[in-house]
Design a protein that fits this description.
The complex is a heterodimer of chains A (309) and B (298). Chain A is globular and about 60 Å long. In chain A, the strands form two sheets. In chain A, strands 1-4 form a two-stranded antiparallel ribbon. In chain A, strands 2-3 form a two-stranded antiparallel ribbon. Helices cover 72% and strands 4% of the residues of chain A. Chain A has 309 residues and is mainly α. The longest helix of chain B is centred in the middle third of the chain and has 21 residues. The relative contact order of chain B is 0.17. In chain B, helix 3 packs parallel to helix 6 and helix 5 packs across helix 6. Chain B is α/β, with parallel strands linked by helices and 298 residues long. Chain B starts with 7 loop residues before the first strand and ends in a 5-residue tail after the last helix. The chains are: A mainly alpha (309), B alpha/beta (298). Chains A and B meet through helix 5, helix 6 and helix 7 of A and helix 2, helix 3 and helix 4 of B.
């Protein structure tokens, strides 16, 4: 039986999730040239925010139709608060410091957030059950779950809104201006601190959307979930050209599809039988990153970074 | 000094700016009145740009205050712009990857309002505000003569048009005072003449103008009043005739730059800009010394 359409769909779904998280890396980098390594943990706190709403706020037996939007709101509030708080209290005091200082701070913050959730959230040290949407639908030879439909719809709506927002709104224009030249932007009357906060908040919101999709799809969350997803999303952002929001989404999808196809089919190549399967997926993802960086260091859509330098 | 019948737009009192042990600007008092074009001149490294930066909130003066229409300016550049002071730059700082129209729209940032939701939902109110804003921006582009290039990327414009666009972008914030930092640097005589006309037209719109410039002929043709800054201090202030006749001004211009020049970086920028001027001007440099331009003025 031909499994290719199913594998492509799996890759696209995984890639959409990477792309949503990658937006947070790329927007923050585009505006303050900071790699926010704590972004994976912002994603993780978003998942726990949504979980909190489901288990501790909503009455038992709430239908998923009602629960999912409320979980999304809860997750988004938590993730945005963590993202904006990180900016305000960890990164802003270091705005004028050498580049390395905020980078190390980000790594420290990432560990701190993991430990806080592990120690203080009941049951978070092991995988905690997350309500899942497992009803399946067959479309031709492809089978997808309700969670997948949620993910793809959310990704499309979020990306389209973001594109309109950045291209067409006053604040979006101010963001572009700040990314190109923060000093001049200030003199045009733009409150650049506010723009930076907005960039972190949008990143947090997108991470929360991805986190809810992750929980609904895989059915459990834990305090380490942000590490690998964050790393992959960062890879996606670099792959697409960091600083470019379309690049982040494209990079995510390319990465997701490449990873899925490689782990599904590479063992059919003679001599590579032992390299197939899910356990090698990360290896192929990072191989792809190395290849792209070798031949196109600015990433797939990354021309604008060169202009800025 | 000036007559007291007019009201002041900008008033700097005892502005001092120190960087570590260096005093770049020393207790400068300075006023710009409504409807005036005021020039600020001085040799390289005299602290002109530093003083400008104090006026726009980029630097917070070590001592002294700057007030706009009677209110002390807040020490944040975006609030200074909001209050009504706009500026251009010595070296062009347009948003190179945005279109001409978008650059002007960014300039309108403080004069427009719009929430997140209205932008996403794009209701009639949003469209109306957006259209009004674009119309206003197009008016300004018409005013400087760049309306036909609205969709060009700013980086693709010729040098002189980039300078004009910077002025339009500054005007977009609807300022009461416009600060021009060497608006004719790198321009040929025709472009300089056109800029002169433009500055007069801006004044006629009721906007006071403060100009830093090296081109003496340009300054003395244009300005109602000229202040001379030397080694961070105001040497003299008065009408063009008074300033041109002052021997100290001539000495300051022909004298050697002193050691430990606080504006070395500025001096280097000016030298670079002048080099560009020499390269682009089809007649010999217009950025002459007072020795050669003095007789030409008026």
């Amino acid at each position: 039986m031909n499994t290719l359409p199913q594998q492509l769909a799996n890759g696209l779904l995984l890639g959409s999730m990477y792309g949503l998280i990658a937006i947070g890396y790329t927007m923050v980098y585009g505006i303050v040239q900071l790699i926010n390594f704590a972004h994976g943990e912002i994603f993780m706190t978003g998942a726990f925010g949504a979980l909190t709403v489901y288990f501790y706020v909503l009455p038992d037996g709430t239908t998923m139709w009602a629960a999912v939007p409320l979980m999304l709101i809860g997750g988004a509030i938590v993730a945005i608060l963590v993202a904006v708080g990180a900016e305000r209290f960890a990164y802003r005091p270091l705005r004028q410091a050498p580049r390395l200082a905020p980078l190390i701070t980000a790594i420290g913050l990432s560990l701190a957030l993991q430990e806080v959730v592990r120690n203080f959230y009941p049951g978070a040290d092991k995988a905690r059950a997350f309500p899942s949407l497992d009803t399946t639908h067959d479309i031709g030879s492809v089978t997808i779950k309700d969670a997948d439909i949620f993910l793809i719809l959310a990704a499309v709506v979020c990306m389209a809104s973001l594109a309109v927002f950045v291209r067409r709104s006053r604040t979006g224009r101010a963001m572009q201006a700040t990314a190109q030249d923060p000093d001049t932007a200030q003199l045009m009357g733009i409150d650049t601190n506010r723009i930076i906060v907005i960039a972190f908040a949008i990143g947090g919101f997108f991470a929360a959307v991805a986190a809810v999709a992750y929980g609904l799809k895989y059915g459990n969350v834990d305090y380490r979930m942000g590490f690998l997803m964050g790393l992959k999303a960062f890879t996606a952002a670099v792959l697409g050209g960091i600083g470019n929001i379309y690049g982040a989404m494209l990079g995510g999808i390319v990465l997701g599809i490449a990873e899925t196809l490689a782990s599904a089919y590479i063992d059919e190549i003679p001599g590579m039988q032992q390299l197939g399967g899910q356990s090698w997926a990360n290896v192929w993802a990072f191989c792809l990153l190395i290849l792209v960086l070798l031949f196109r260091p600015q990433g797939l859509l990354g021309e604008r970074v060169a202009d800025r330098a | 000094m000036t007559t007291m019948t007019t009201t002041s737009v900008l008033e700097a009192r005892g502005v001092t700016m120190r960087f570590g042990g260096l005093t770049a600007v020393r207790s400068v008092d300075f006023t710009v009145n409504t409807g005036e074009i005021v020039g600020l001149i001085g040799p390289n490294g005299a602290g002109k740009t530093t003083f400008f930066n104090c006026l726009t909130g980029l630097y917070i003066p070590t001592e002294g205050t700057v007030s706009y229409k009677g209110t002390v300016l807040p020490p944040k550049p975006h609030l200074v712009t909001k209050a009504g002071v706009a500026r251009t730059f010595q070296n062009i700082r347009l948003f190179a990857n945005m279109t001409v129209l978008e650059n002007v729209l960014v300039g309108r940032h403080t004069r427009t309002k719009e929430g997140l939701w209205s932008a996403l939902l794009r209701g009639p109110g949003f469209r109306k505000a957006e259209r009004a804003s674009e119309e206003r921006a197009m008016e300004l582009l018409g005013f400087i003569g760049l309306a036909h290039k609205r969709d060009h990327l700013a980086r693709n414009l010729p040098y002189g048009e980039q300078r004009k666009l910077e002025i339009a972008r500054a005007l977009a914030s609807e300022p009461g005072l416009l600060l021009l930092d060497e608006p004719t640097a790198g321009m040929n005589p025709q472009e300089t003449r056109a800029t002169e006309e433009l500055v007069f037209a801006i004044r006629d719109k009721g906007i006071a103008v403060l100009v830093i410039e090296h081109d003496m002929r340009f300054i003395f043709n244009l300005c109602d009043r000229v202040a001379v800054l030397v080694q961070g201090e105001k040497l003299i202030e008065g009408t063009s005739d008074v300033v041109q006749a002052d021997e100290r001004v001539i000495a300051a211009y022909l004298g050697e730059p002193f050691e430990g020049d606080p504006g070395e970086a500025e001096a280097a920028e000016v030298t670079a800009a002048e080099a560009t001027a020499d390269a682009t001007a089809d007649t010999p440099s217009t950025t002459g010394t007072p020795g050669t331009t003095k007789g030409d003025a008026q």
